[in-house]
């Protein structure tokens, strides 16, 4: 018996195939014409800052929000016209643990099992199995209110797996978790992928997308600004960056021309005066840049080689910082 | 962990891999029962939900009987046959009013997003709690009748008539709860639901024949009282409890309740499905 793929969709269909997705809230276009293709069996990451429209997009694909424009298909099934079928194909794990706080962990899984058509006995055994596999057996009869953030996420994910959906949406699965719990969550997600699930995940963290996703779409202000593998995205900003702060704040322009001569590409001036963010095609070139700056009699206060951050990917792709930093800049101007 | 699979074993998965376009009636019933199970679990953990249904019948029956009894019917014992069915109807309304507030509070929680994302009937998250709430209506109407009996009320309709009036009250409460369920799905906050519910509840109970005979009212008020569905429920309860008679009023009351369900249940499901 084949339980991983439903009979209706054909093998040719993408897990998700969306084109021109639009969601309006009054005048504000939260999602503004996004195309998205998620292949079967891959982990697709949607990367973007808070308020970029990631959750809204996921909510539309999960039939939680009506689609205002464009179309979306899940394994070939139209989301707008056939929501009940789509709900049978997708398991949703929310940004905030969407389990019932009034019930215990075991009762939660029993309830969702019953809702999904399992018999009483099956609902109970499936719940017990999932609790064991997610390391929650000891907390089975505890109230959710006493759960830690990591335990809630694991239970939330367990609840999404009861019906063995072929496609799983993970909305910021590790936001707010400590590094150790985050690592455990990543491990869990990798196991799911190994078992053939297709995963669409949203995240604010480049390293999370880097660790988990086969392909990544970068979303900003409701639009897709880039798409590709993690390596492709990172190479667009350099594998790492050299952050330099000049002693003479007004020499940034001069320094930029020196750097351009060495690397063939002009660096980005950081918001702080006298700061340069230099994309490095190869970390070993950092020394070349520093030597060239010294030869040009440009003295530096600090120098550091950094892995690209989401903000740098953003800066490179959109020409502006992610929302949070923009706010700070505006405050400084005002 | 590595040797285990995270996904549940295959025999526990829903058997049919084929997708259905909409939930069947049987699935809808099972999902509603699962939601009712959830609601009873909630009730057991928040026993304060039972305060109103236990205290109100005790308090209101005694209070209304002793305050209005002499003025309206000459004596408390003469007033009891009039006021007990009235308080039954009032209790039904006030206890089912809580539905809207509770649903609104519930819908603001994350778990409702999951309910919406599941392939379940849209009516199940609404009909489940409504079904579980029947427990509260049963407690309230049983206590009201018991308090009346303790105060010396001897129903002329006998055991069967009393049971009929009792059942009609519970049915009416379940039906009228759909008005408040609908309110819960359209209002923005639990407080708003509470406020609007009270504004509906007071005119419906007090501008009815629940506590005073309609003939004593000014003409325009009597006209409203006579079309008020609560009046029909009260009259039907009186016919059943005091006379043991299955009158036309009983038919009208049942029909009125059915109309309320037929109008407000679809409205509630529709606005629930659209809610963000």
From TrEMBL, chain A:
GO terms for biological process: daunorubicin transport; doxorubicin transport; response to antibiotic. GO terms for molecular function: ATP binding; ATP hydrolysis activity. GO terms for cellular component: plasma membrane. The keyword Nucleotide-binding applies. Its main location: membrane. It is a peripheral membrane protein. InterPro entries: AAA+_ATPase, ABC_transporter-like_ATP-bd, ABC_transporter-like_CS, ABC_transporter_ATP-binding, DrrA, DrrA1/2-like_C, P-loop_NTPase. Keywords: Antibiotic resistance, ATP-binding, Cell membrane, Membrane, Nucleotide-binding, Translocase, Transport. Belongs to the ABC transporter superfamily. Drug exporter-1 (DrugE1) (TC 3.A.1.105) family. PANTHER family: ABC TRANSPORTER ATP-BINDING PROTEIN (PTHR42711), DOXORUBICIN RESISTANCE ATP-BINDING PROTEIN DRRA (PTHR42711:SF19). This is Daunorubicin/doxorubicin resistance ABC transporter ATP-binding protein DrrA. It comes from Nocardioides silvaticus.
TrEMBL record, chain B:
GO terms for cellular component: ATP-binding cassette (ABC) transporter complex. Residues 48-275 form the ABC transmembrane type-2 domain. It is found in: Cell membrane; Membrane. The chain crosses the membrane at residues 50-73, 79-99, 134-153, 159-180, 192-212, 250-269. One of its GO terms (biological process) is response to antibiotic. The keyword DNA-binding does not apply. It comes from the Bacteria. One of its GO terms (molecular function) is ABC-type transporter activity. PANTHER family: NODULATION PROTEIN J. Belongs to the ABC-2 integral membrane protein family. This is Transport permease protein. It comes from Nocardioides silvaticus.
């Amino acid at each position: 018996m084949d339980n991983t793929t439903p009979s209706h969709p054909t093998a040719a269909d993408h897990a998700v195939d969306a084109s021109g997705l639009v969601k309006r809230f009054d005048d504000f276009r939260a999602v503004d014409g996004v195309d998205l293709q998620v292949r079967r069996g891959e982990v697709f990451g949607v990367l973007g800052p808070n308020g970029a429209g990631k959750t809204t997009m996921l909510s539309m694909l999960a039939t939680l929000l009506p689609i205002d424009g464009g179309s979306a298909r899940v394994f070939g099934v139209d989301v707008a016209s056939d929501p009940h079928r789509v709900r049978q194909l997708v398991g949703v794990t929310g940004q905030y643990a969407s389990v019932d706080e009034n019930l215990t962990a075991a009762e939660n899984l029993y309830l969702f099992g019953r809702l999904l058509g399992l018999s009483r006995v099956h609902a109970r055994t499936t719940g017990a199995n999932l609790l064991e596999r997610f390391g929650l057996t000891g907390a089975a009869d505890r109230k959710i209110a006493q759960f830690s953030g990591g335990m809630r996420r694991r239970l939330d994910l367990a609840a999404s797996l009861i019906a063995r959906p072929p496609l799983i949406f993970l909305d910021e699965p590790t936001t707010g978790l400590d590094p150790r719990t985050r690592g455990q969550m990543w491990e869990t997600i990798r196991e799911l992928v190994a078992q053939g699930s297709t995963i669409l995940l949203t995240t604010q963290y480049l390293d999370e997308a880097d660790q988990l996703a086969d392909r990544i779409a970068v979303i900003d202000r409701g639009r897709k600004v880039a798409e590709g593998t993690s390596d492709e995205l990172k190479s667009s900003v350099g594998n790492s960056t050299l952050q330099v702060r000049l002693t003479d704040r007004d020499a940034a322009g001069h320094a930029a021309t020196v750097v351009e001569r060495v690397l063939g590409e002009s660096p980005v001036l950081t918001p702080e005066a006298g700061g340069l963010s230099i994309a490095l095609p190869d970390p070993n070139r950092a020394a070349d840049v520093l030597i060239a700056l010294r030869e040009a009699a440009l003295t530096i206060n600090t120098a550091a080689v950094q892995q690209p951050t989401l903000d740098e990917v953003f800066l490179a792709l959109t020409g502006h910082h992610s929302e949070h930093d923009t706010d700070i800049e505006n405050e400084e101007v005002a | 962990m590595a040797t285990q699979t995270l996904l549940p074993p295959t025999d526990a998965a829903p058997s049919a891999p084929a997708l259905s376009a909409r939930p069947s009636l049987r699935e809808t019933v099972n999902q509603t029962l699962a939601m009712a199970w959830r609601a009873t679990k909630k009730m057991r953990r928040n026993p304060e939900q039972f305060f109103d249904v236990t205290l109100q019948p005790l308090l209101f029956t005694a209070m209304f009987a002793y305050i209005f009894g002499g003025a309206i019917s000459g004596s408390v014992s003469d007033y009891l046959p009039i006021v007990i069915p009235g308080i039954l109807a009032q209790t039904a309304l006030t206890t089912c009013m809580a539905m809207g507030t509770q649903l609104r509070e519930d819908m603001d929680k994350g778990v409702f997003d999951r309910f919406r994302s599941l392939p379940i009937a849209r009516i199940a998250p609404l009909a489940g709690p409504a079904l579980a709430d029947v427990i509260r209506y049963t407690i309230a109407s049983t206590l009201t009748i018991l308090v009346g009996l303790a105060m010396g009320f001897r129903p002329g309709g006998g055991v069967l008539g009393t049971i009929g009036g009792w059942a009609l009250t519970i049915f009416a409460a379940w039906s009228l709860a759909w008005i408040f369920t609908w309110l819960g799905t359209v209002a923005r906050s639990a407080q708003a639901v509470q406020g609007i519910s009270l504004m509906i509840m007071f005119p419906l109970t007090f501008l009815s024949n629940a506590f005073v005979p309609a003939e004593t009212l000014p003409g325009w008020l009597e006209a409203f009282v006579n079309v008020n569905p609560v009046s029909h429920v009260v009259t039907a309860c009186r016919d059943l409890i005091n006379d043991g008679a299955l009158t036309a009023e009983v038919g009208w009351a049942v029909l009125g309740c059915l109309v309320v369900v037929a109008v407000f249940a679809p409205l509630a499901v529709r606005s629930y499905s659209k809610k963000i």
